[in-house]
Structure formats: C-alpha cells, structure tokens
Amino acid sequence: MDITNRSPNCVYNFLRVCFGGFISSGASRIPQDGENCYGASDVSLQSPTAGDCSLQQSWDITYQEAAIYLQEGENNDKFFTHPKNAKALAAYLFVHNHLFYLMELMTSLLLLLLSLCEAPAVPTLHLDIYVHATLELFALVVVVFELAMKMRWLGCHTFIRHKRTLGKTFVLLVQFIEAIVVLVRQTSHVRVTRALRPIFLVDCHYSRAVRRNLRQIFQSLPPFIDILLLLLFFMVIFAILGFYLFSPNPADPYFNTLENSLVSLFVLVTTANYPDVMMPSYSRNPWSCIFFIVYLSIELYFIMNLLLAVVFDTFNDIEKKKFKSLLLHKRTAIQHTYRLLASKQRPSGIPYRHFEGLMRFYKPRMSAKERYLTFKALNQSNTQLLRLKDFYSFYEVVGLKWKARRSREYWFDELPHTAFLIFKGINILVKSRTFQYCIYLVVSVNGIWILVDTFMLKGGSIISQNVPWSYIVFLTIYGVEVLLKITGLGPLEYFTSGWNLFDFSVTVFAFLGLMALAFNMKPFYFIVVLRPLQLLRLFKLKKRYRNVLDTMFELLPRMASLGLTLLIFYYSFSIIGMEFFSGVLFPNCCNTSTVAESYRWRNVTIGNTTIVEEGYYYLNNFDNIFNSFVTLFELTVVNNWYIIMEGVTSQTSHWARLYFMIFYIVTMVVLTIIVAFILDAFVFHMNYSRKNQDAEDEKGITLEKEILKEELLMILELCRRDCNTFEIAELRKMISHLDSNGQTSVHLVGRRSRTKSDLSMKMYQEEIQEWYEEHSQKQAEQHMEELLPSRKLCQRLGLRPRSQTIN
Amino acid sequence: MDITNRSPNCVYNFLRVCFGGFISSGASRIPQDGENCYGASDVSLQSPTAGDCSLQQSWDITYQEAAIYLQEGENNDKFFTHPKNAKALAAYLFVHNHLFYLMELMTSLLLLLLSLCEAPAVPTLHLDIYVHATLELFALVVVVFELAMKMRWLGCHTFIRHKRTLGKTFVLLVQFIEAIVVLVRQTSHVRVTRALRPIFLVDCHYSRAVRRNLRQIFQSLPPFIDILLLLLFFMVIFAILGFYLFSPNPADPYFNTLENSLVSLFVLVTTANYPDVMMPSYSRNPWSCIFFIVYLSIELYFIMNLLLAVVFDTFNDIEKKKFKSLLLHKRTAIQHTYRLLASKQRPSGIPYRHFEGLMRFYKPRMSAKERYLTFKALNQSNTQLLRLKDFYSFYEVVGLKWKARRSREYWFDELPHTAFLIFKGINILVKSRTFQYCIYLVVSVNGIWILVDTFMLKGGSIISQNVPWSYIVFLTIYGVEVLLKITGLGPLEYFTSGWNLFDFSVTVFAFLGLMALAFNMKPFYFIVVLRPLQLLRLFKLKKRYRNVLDTMFELLPRMASLGLTLLIFYYSFSIIGMEFFSGVLFPNCCNTSTVAESYRWRNVTIGNTTIVEEGYYYLNNFDNIFNSFVTLFELTVVNNWYIIMEGVTSQTSHWARLYFMIFYIVTMVVLTIIVAFILDAFVFHMNYSRKNQDAEDEKGITLEKEILKEELLMILELCRRDCNTFEIAELRKMISHLDSNGQTSVHLVGRRSRTKSDLSMKMYQEEIQEWYEEHSQKQAEQHMEELLPSRKLCQRLGLRPRSQTIN
Lengths: 807, 807
Prior knowledge:
The structure is a homodimer.
Chain A: H1 10-18, H2 32-39, H3 55-75, H4 86-95, H5 98-117, H6 129-161, H7 163-185, H8 198-202, H9 208-246, H10 258-269, H11 274-284, H12 289-341, E1 350-351, H13 352-362, H14 368-378, E2 385-386, H15 388-391, H16 394-398, E3 401-404, H17 417-431, H18 433-457, H19 469-489, H20 491-496, H21 498-518, H22 525-529, H23 543-581, H24 596-599, E4 601-606, E5 609-614, H25 625-637, H26 641-651, H27 656-691, E6 700-708, H28 709-722, H29 725-741, E7 745-753, H30 756-763, H31 765-797
Antiparallel strand pairs in A: 1-2, 3-7, 4-5, 6-7
Helix pairs in contact in A: 1-4, 2-3, 3-12, 3-13, 4-6, 5-6, 6-7, 9-10, 9-12, 9-23, 12-27, 12-31, 13-14, 17-19, 18-19, 19-21, 23-25, 23-27, 28-29
Organism (chains A, B): Microcaecilia unicolor
GO molecular function, one term (chains A, B): ligand-gated sodium channel activity
Subcellular location (chains A, B): Early endosome membrane; Lysosome membrane; Recycling endosome membrane
C-alpha cells in the first residue's frame, strides 16, 4: 500500500494524469524514457521501442510492475485490472494514493452528512436549499472526477464488467439529476434515492472491511432466505389456525382478521407482544396457551436457532474459502513478481540487487538495513539468490519491524550501583505477586466503598461540593502504584503493556476528576462518575478473563466494521423513514390505534385525583436523522417495537408495516452475522490455543537475524547510491558502535502482531498443502496463457525474456 | 440391556433377592450350583469349591459375566460396580430389569404428580391431606425398597461413593420425615423441599438422556459463570453511573435509588423494559440515549454473545470428550469380555460355541440365525476363531437387524402379466417427476385457496355448516394420490418413507375432518383447522429443506430430552413459586407498584365516556402447578417478565426479585445449551455431509452376508439343544426353500439406522486411532492390576485361568 505514498511526485502525477501528455515529463521516479518503454507502443507489439531504454531504466520499470503485482496480491485486486500501458500505469499510481483515498472518503462523508441539513433537518443544522444542493452538486462532481480517473486505469471494458462501479455510476447519475431538479425547483421532492448514498462510502478504499462484510452478508443470504421462508410459512399456517381459533372471541383484538393475526404472529416471533397477545384467549380458555407455546417453541426456539446455525455454518465455510482464495491470490502475485525478477542468467532465484530494487518501489519508506534484513529473513537457503520457495513467505516477513536486540535487562542497568540497587528493589517489588494482590485488594475495597457510598446516598445532592477523603486516599495509592511501576519497569516497558496503559489512563482520569471537584468545574463532573471503571482492573486476576479480553481486542476492528455496516443500513432506512414518516408522530397522535396509551399525554381522573399520564413514545419518531437513528436502534433491540410500528401505521397506511418488518428482517440478518462472527472468532481462538498450548504466551510473530559487520558495510556501499543522509548516518553509527565494542555482528529482532491469517495458516496447515498442490496443477494447465502478458510486455520492451522456471 | 429381560425367572429373582437364601434355588438360568461357584466362597480364596461345578455350568457363569461386561460397556456403567459375588449378581440382575425400571419411573412420576393434588392444588384434582400424604409415603417406601436393592448390588462402600445416590438418599430422608409430619399435623407446612423431588425422576434408568444433559449443563457452568460475572460487573458499574446521571431527574422512576438502578439494568439486559427505561431521561436530554446504547451494545450484543460462544465452545469440547470416553469404555468392556472367553487352548480367539453362549445371555431374544450372522459379520478373517481385533466392532454389528435380501424388485412381481403391467404403469407414474410436480401444484393451489378463503371470511361464522365443495375436491385428489402411491409402490415401501407417512396421516386427518363436518360433530372441528398443514408437503421440493427437516428429526429425541430437562427446572421453580407466591396476584392487586396498570380491572372516565380497562396480568400467577408452568414459560420468553416480577414484589418483599432473577439466569443457561446443541448438531451434520458428498444418500448402516446351506444345517444342529420350536421351524423352512430353488446359499442384509456415534466415528477417524494407541499404552501400565479380578474369580472357581493375550 505504501508504494504510492513515497514519491513527492503525486501532485505531478495528478497533473499529468489529468491533463494527459501536455506536461513534459520531468525528473520523476517513473523515468521519462521508461514511460515510453512501459507501453507507449501498446498497439504495435511487433515494433519494440526498446532501443531507447537504458538497462537501469528498464529494470526500474520491471521493479515498478513487480511491486504493483505484490500490491495487487496484498489488496486482493484482480490481475486483469493490472495496468497494461503507461497511461493505465499513471492512472493506477494516481488512484492508489492516500491523498486520492482521502478525497474519496471526504466526498462520500460529505454526501452522507448532507442529510443532517436537508429537510427534515436537525434543528440546529438546518441549511437553505440552495446551499445544500450546491454542496451536493460539488460533491457529485468530485465523484465524477474520481470515476473518470478509475476508468482511465481500468479501461472501458473492465469498467463495465465491474458491478459495483456500474451501480455507483447509475446512482451518481440519478443523484445528479435529482440535485439539479431540487436546485431548479427550490424545493425538495420525495428523495428516497438518497438512501443509496452509502454506496459512495462503501466504494472507498478504506471501506474494504465494510465491503467484505456486505459480501459476506449477501453470500449468507440464500440459505438465510430459505430458512426465513420456513419461518414465514409456519407463521402463515399458525395465522390461519389462530384466526379460526380465536376470532370468535370479541375481546381479542389480536386475531380478529387474518391480517391482524399475521401481524400479531410476526410480532410474536420477536416476542415483543408476548404475554399480552395470549391473555384475552387465555382468560377465556386456559388450554389456548398451548397454541402459543407450540408456536413459540417451533418459531422462536427452533427455527430462529436454525437460522443462526445455517448462517454460522455458511459463515464458517465462507471464511475458509475466502482465506483460501486470498492465500492463493497472494501466491500467484508472488509468482508473477518472481517471474519478472528472476533473470535469465540466474534462473534459480532473485539476486539481492533486484530484490532491493523491488523493495524500493514496494515499500519506499523502508530503510536499506530493513530491506537487507527482509532479504536475509526470506533467504532460508543462505545462498546469493532468493528462490521462489523462499519468496513465497514474502507477505509474512515483510510486515516485521526490525529492532536491535536489547542487551540490557533493565533500563537502569547503566546507573551507579546505589541507584541500581534501589531501582532493582523497586523492580522486584512491583513484579512480586504480593504487590499485585495488594493492589487488587485496594481496588476491591475501593469498589465496595463506592458501592456502599452510592447506596447510602439515596437521592439528595449527588456530588458533594467538598472532596471526600476516601477519594483522595485511594487516588494517592493508585498514584504511588503508577509511579513505582514506571520507575521499576522503566517507562518503555511500562507503556508497552495494554493493561498498564489502562491503569495509567484510569488513574489520570481519576486525578482529573479530583481536580474538577477541587476547583468546582461542573462540566467535568462526569469524570468523577467514571470512578467505578477502576474495578475493571480486577479482571486481570483470572486467566479466562484475560483470554476473553484479549480476544475482544483482537475482534474490535472487525466488530467496528460490522457496526459500520449496520450504520449504513441504518442510514438508508433513516432516509426512507424520514421521507415517509417525518412529522407523523406527536403526543396524542395515535388515538385510533391499539397502542394509543403509549402516545398519550393526558389528564386522567380516577375518583377525585387527577394524574398526568405521559406516554413517551411520540419521542421515537423520524423527524430528523438523529431521531431516526435512535428509533431504529430501538427497533433493533426489538422490545416494544410494535408500539412504534402500530403508531406509525395508524397515522399513515397499512403498508407502513412493510417498512418495519423489512427493517426487522434486515437487522436480524446483520445481527445474526455478528453473532456468527463472534462465535466463529471465539471458537477459532479457543481451538487454536487448545492446539498450541505450549506457545500460549507468545503474543506476536518474532524472528531473529544476525548481521555481520561486513554485511553492514556492503549495505552502506549499496546505500550510497540512493539513500538519504539520515539513513547513511544511522548505518555509520551502527558500524562504529560495533567497532567500539569489539563485536563482529549485531542481532536484530523482527516483530509484528499476530493476525487472523497467521492463526488460520497454523490451523489449516495440512489443508493448505493440498490447496497449493491443487493450485499448481491448475496453474500448470494455464501456464502458457498466464505467461503471455509478461512475455508480451517483454517483447514490447525488447528486453531479454526472463526466466520462467518455477520450482 | 436385554440381558435381564429374557428370563421368566425375574419374579423368582425378586423373591430370592428380597428374602435372601430362604428359598431353595429352583431351575433358574443361573444354575443352582453355579450360584455357589460365582462367589459363595468369596472370603476363602484359597479353598476353591470348583469341585462342585460341572464344566457347562461354569461356562454359563462366564457367559453371564461376559454379557454383564458388555452391558456395562453399553450403559457406560463403571467397572468397579461390576457384581463381584452371587448376591451382588442376583441383585444386579434384579435391578437391571425393565420391570424394575418401570417401577422406578412410576414411583418418581407419582411423586411428581402429587403436586397436582397437594395444596395449592389444581381445582379439579384436589385431594384430602391424608390421601395425598399416604400416597406420598407409599411412593417413598417403594423408593426405599429400590435403594435397598441397589445397595445390595453395589455394596456399602461404592454406594457411599456415588454422589447422586447419596443425594437421593438424603432427599428421601427429608421427604419421609416431612410426609410423616404432614400426616400427623394434618396440615401442610412450607414444603420447599418438594422442589427436590425431580431427583427421583433423574435417577431413573430411562432418564439417561436427562442425566447427560444435566451433566453437560453443570460442566458448562464454570465458564458460563465467569462470563456471567463479567456481565454483572458491567451491570454494577453502569448502575452506579446511571444512578449518578439520572437520579436528579424526578420524573425518572427507573434510577431513583441504586437498587432500582440495578434492577432496571438487569431487566434491560433482557431488553424487556427497553425504550421505556430510556424515555424519561431521553425526553430531558437527547444525549442520554448514548448511555443506553453503549450499555446494550456491551451487555446484550457483546457479552451475551460471548456467553453463547463460551458455552458453545465448552459444549463442543465436552461432546468430543464424552464420545472419546464412551468409545474407550466400550473398548475396555470388549477387552474384558474377550479375556473371559478366549480359552487357554485357543488363545488367539473366541470359538463360535463361546460366542453363541455369550449372546444367549447378552441378547436372549436374538435368534440362532442372527447369532451366527453376527459372528460371521464380526469375523473378518474368516477363521474358526474370532480375534480381539475383529471383536472390537461388536457394538456396531450387534445392532443390525438381519433380513433376507429381497430378490423381488416390485411387490407385484409375482402377479399375472396383465396385473403386472397395470401396476408397473402405476409404479412408473407415481415415481415420475411430472406426477410429483402436479401434486405440488395441487397443494400450492390448495394453500392459496385456503388463504384467500380465510381472508374473505372476515369474522362471522367461522366454520360453515355445509361442507365447502373445494374441500371435497382437494381431498379427493389427495385420496387418489395416496391410493395410487400405495398400489404403485406397495404398502411396505410406501410406509417406510417418513414423508409418505406424513402425507398419509395428513390426508387421513383431512378425511376425518370432512366426516366431522358432514356429521356435524362439533368437538372434532379442530381437525378442519389443521388443513393448512398440507402445505408442509411443499418442503420436499428443495434439498436444503429436506436436509433441515432430516436434521430436525434426528435432533428430536435429544431436543425432547432437553425440553424435559427444562421441565424439571420448571417443576422445582413452580414448587418454590407456589409455596411463596400462591394467591398473591389478583385483579387490582398491585396498586402500589409501577406496573399497577397491567393488573388493573377498573372503570376509567375520560371526559364523558367510561371504559373498562382490563390488565390481564393477574392471570400469570402461581396459584397451582399449571398456572405456575404457564407463568414460568412467560418468564422464559422474557418479554414483559418484569411486570410479573414487579407485581409479585409489590405484594411480597424485595427479595422476591431474587427468585425471578435466578430463574432468568437458569433458563438462560438451559436455553444457551439448547442453542449450542442445535448449532453443534447442525454444523456437525453439514460438515459431515460436506466431507462425505458421495455417500450422501445412504440413510443407514447396511452389511450383506452370505450363508451357505451347510452353515444353516450347523446352526440347526446347535439349535436343537436350546432353541424354541418356532425358531427351529423357521430354520427348517429356510433350508427347504433353498432345496426347492436349488440354491446353495442365502444372502442376508443387516441394517440399522445411523447414530451420532457412527457419524462421530467417521468424523474423528484419524484422532480415534491416536486415542486407541494412547489408551492401550495406559492399559499396558495397568495391565496386571486389571487382570487381577478375573484371575481371582477363576481361582475362586478353581477353573483353568483363561488366556489373557491381547493382540
């Protein structure tokens, strides 16, 4: 991903790509002559223009192409979108750029946020129609520009084949027309199509996780729908049955027509109306409860769980297939790269020179030392050449962060003896179990204190004006603990542990709360309220909690992306809800419905007393996007959702129920996926840790390599050509450090955090081997066709065709 | 299991066991002298009394013991409860007997059903105190008798070590004392201990599945409780937070004290009070919704799912471990049996003579032919002797039902030509796709017809007095279809398919409904209402539904046992509920509580109109065991459960909430286990069918064996000694049939349905091998000790020690 970020010439690229060939190529990394080489003559395959290219420049292009292959492997971009000529290459580099990505993100966010200001707007954010319509037009123009850029890279043919982009184009067109219409008429019509706006966000580079979730949701849909049909089918059967059984009872409003019967049973699946729906018939005949018990047992306890099971199973299967295809895609990318770089003279591998060239394009921010270390880490056979077999582990090794192995045990090793002894004592103290358990004890006492304190409060002034002494005592203990730990372990070690970071921040917060109390700063009182969070520290105590919390943190990114996916659905439903239902709910609005009670605001007289009865449900409306989101969250939680549904239905039409039912089903899908995901991730982690009980503590992937002084000198030599001065200075410092200590080599440790992919690699170890064999068999069949593009390129470039051996 | 059922002397055994040695031993299967052999001299190891035993009798004892080993292997009884002397053996045979099992079941059911009649009784079933107390005492005496019998078998030492039996004894004692107290005082005190009665049911032989579920629930508890603590912990933190944030709002009844805050948040985890609990604060400050959204996201959407994940993971693990231990237990049982039967002269295997003797005791109902076939099926090496390696698959083979292979293709093969052609035509017709789809079409039309018909009804008289013609038309079509299928496929083939059975019964029901309509029999009108069930036939159409329904049917027994387990919990909670809360709920009972509305039955005046407002919740009470069960089901469904809780709390004390909260947690555990079970079973099945895509259609385990005429003659020869005349006649018929057809052999097919164990065997194929190796290593260490008991026995019996070789 970093490939495109390196060059200072992205602005140049921008201009060049935008304005075609009008600017003459300056001193850009993509060599000015190289540009001609890459594909100026992409029509005339028979007339290579290679005569113009110097060798180094042609190699640079090869590195560039190889780096693009690696990037495609990483991003799971299909190889048929591989840029095939200079124009496409320039567009590719322009589009794959953090600036461009950010622009994409900003435009889509702007488009989404517009609904805050469009009528029905959030009161404080209301904008005039011509302002927000102009903003929208501007954003849409930017999107058009982005699309045009992508088309330049992909070419028309691929562009049309790509469904998502095609959909985006269509939505763009509709939005454009509508925005203009709004601007012309100076009034907003029913713009339900705004519900499609999230497609721009989904299409962003950064929304990869959301796209993946959506894909997974869509792939889980077919089995889901099958079981849903089963569910609906039983619902219909029971609705007919219920209608026959209960409609003779005039006191039963739930089954008096077939439609009501169906709606009641739909709501019953969500349990939202449970005992109530049964009560009229139950009070008439106790045996009628059997109908409801059987219905709930079948629908809620069996079919709903089956739904989860089916989705979970599909999810599992998809995850594995996805992992497999990603793995094989990366492998193919590595093969493509290898084929480009392994030279004819040395067909058995890639020499360091080429590897270094590749890395300069693939990861421009990487230092020369790290490049060499990566090469060395890959090169298991310790020969001059990197073989394909070793090169396959490229993606695992390239992410490592290299650091010199720490020779010191403690941070205070080099202090004078007395200080050393003191710090050593503190170190032993803070690492001792007694110390830890003392702290746990203090936290527990603190927790009980807070609980009792709060319990004694019973209303009255909640936060007293003077600072309670217990607060100061406990805070002092925590402060001392933090100080001791920092001095004992050294700041570096202290802050690398997530738990310590948590302790630290909680203590700092508590301190800020104390300040707020002491100086009577009302707006910061909420910090005082966070005191109970201290108690979370107790969860370090038990291993299972540590496991669970670790898993939780590993799940967080994915959870966040799932939450975002849910929000996207919320957004679409909010827009639709606002267009149709905004303003329909208000106090005493729904007097004709069965749920009138919940919307009532009235004075009731019972005997002689008058009571104000406030049904708050009119607050759950679609009057602006914030309210809609809260309402939709309430619908997601499902409880009492039918009150909102019936309220809206009584104010609009029967068809409004469809909106709510469809929303229920959609959130059910997403939530089921979330459950399946948590289940899958957790079970996977547990299985993994059961399989690898020895290596349990290992938190990340580490690799140790030794570099000899001679190798450092060689790197320095190579580096002189194109490294910056800082890097050279660092290398020199390292060599002189070696000299002064009389050592001949330096040990470096590469470290990175463990990803799901690493875990999967270990879990499916045996199967992976099978996949590889299967894959290479398939490739052997396609071999000739696959080789063609790079051969064509070579022919075009007039370069010697490089080796295509694969071992 | 059948071993004990065979002998007509179980009554004799009963008397003999009950009255010790008072009756002189008659002509029982356990030979009168053999009884002495088995262990009369169990003290005097040095003085064998074998001189008294004839060889055949001593072998019979060996067969008996071997059969008991096999039975223990099957029932997962531990080997240390293996009967060690004649008294224990007699008690063992007495206790392992379907009559005894039934007695156990009946007593425990009687005890459970007593609560229908004890105050507070179901109105129509009320019994006087001395009647039900006497019944209870009677049942308890029977239980004492059963326990005494078990003690005779197990011996005092083992008896005390067995926790469940010990618990049962304790409960028995308490119940006894209480029943006597009730009888003496002639009034019932607060008998909460009745909640322990289900232990008698759980201890029944037939409740094995329930015991297994309970064990699984208890094993899943530790991780469950850990996560539950996490949940409660966050609840406490948020309760304190909520109290600080919302208690200044006087309109907010949910957070005005810390206790209310805690209860509100507990109920919120179940979502039962969701939008309501938020509304007062939300109407004051819209941002307060964040508190609730964060709380629900953490508790409901994360931790609750984590709970499921942890239970699912534990469940998975336990299932596998259970399967492993059962498998190894069976293997050990087979080894024990083999050791007893492999003779010294022929240490390499069991001759048929001994195998036959064993089977006579293990499965007395098995015919001589089946015994021989089982031997032949086991004997892979086709030698005279059955080797241990082959003997290991004993349990898989012994369940097969053997039938002569059908030589006929159709049932009408032997009819005259014309008839054959007609039936053949029908056969082809009913098997054709066109026919099937026509039927599906008819069913769909019927479904739409019913739907439209019901929709047009709109109240009025629901079931018209005259039979609608559409009903007759569709029923005729279904009738013709059933007849065609039966004639085309033959009744035997027709009724072996579950789907056909379903079709048949639905059609018969519809016909009965028609009769009911035609002859105007009101009580049977409900059958008419079942018409929509016809639509279920449509689910044959799609493969996934067939899969799902097949899985469902395979799950049913286990689901039923899980349901029963839930009912046992219901029972205990009902008793407690009835003891404390019976009679506290009635119309207008809870006017002081926040949920008074739901219990109200009053006339309200709004302006000039008077409305009767009926809150039905007073019906959800604990006034008798039926009502309690319905109330508990409503609590299980969770929605609005807090209305019942608050109602009861307002009438009793704050501590009543504990009952409801504990019940919620218990049902949560059981329901989570149910979900985990469905998930596990379903995913297992899917994985299995994915792994074995070829053998997908195979519905059961089949095995084919050929028996030569000579072998049949040999069986007949052996049989003359102790087979009944019917069996001999059958064998003769078979031989003569062979003679008349001029065949020299007959083919027989053994068939049984596939069990979960078979699937597991296939799934864990590789691991099983590892387990076996591990197991035999462990055994090799314990070898000498394990051999001791049987050696001792031999020494006692004065018989030649039999071979102990294991290959």
